[in-house]
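Contributing new complexes? Match this layout with fe (ii) ion.
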Amino acid sequence: MTPSQTRDKLLQQHARLRELMSAAAKLAARLLAAGAVDAAATDEALLEFRGAVQDLRAAVAEHNETEEAILAPVLRAADAWGPLRVDRMIEEHAAEHAAFRAALAGDELDVAERMGDLAEELDAHMAAEERTFLSAAVLRDDVLNLDTCS
Ligand SMILES: [Fe+2]
Ligand SMILES: [Fe+2]
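Output block (do not edit by hand):
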């Protein structure tokens, strides 16, 4: 896969994550509001929210795996920071991914309570990536060779 193909793939995953996150945040608000109405409304909202969270978990896991596989070679090849700083960025990035996975784990009502903050954090994480290692200036076909990355 060329750098620009890798970039396209990751940006498509970001767009999909934003759609899933937005849908899940709406369903979370509905679920939390339904609790104040009645049990039947809560059950229906819970089922829909559960489906949305499952889709989001799967998409986050797939994206994190893809991104972590390409991040190290991309950062090292584009390195303006020095290897130690690159290693630290990779560690911090993986820790943020782990935090997203943790925030999506557990009981649906707890996840629903966290969904607003999680949506903001995930969006900020992706926006920062798009400004830095996913920018067109970094993932250039004429500079990097990522053929070893699937
Ligand atoms: Fe990331
Ligand atoms: Fe990302």
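Reviewers usually confirm one structural detail per submission. For this one: Residues 67, 93, 97, 125, 129 surround fe (ii) ion (ligand 1) (CB under 6 Å).
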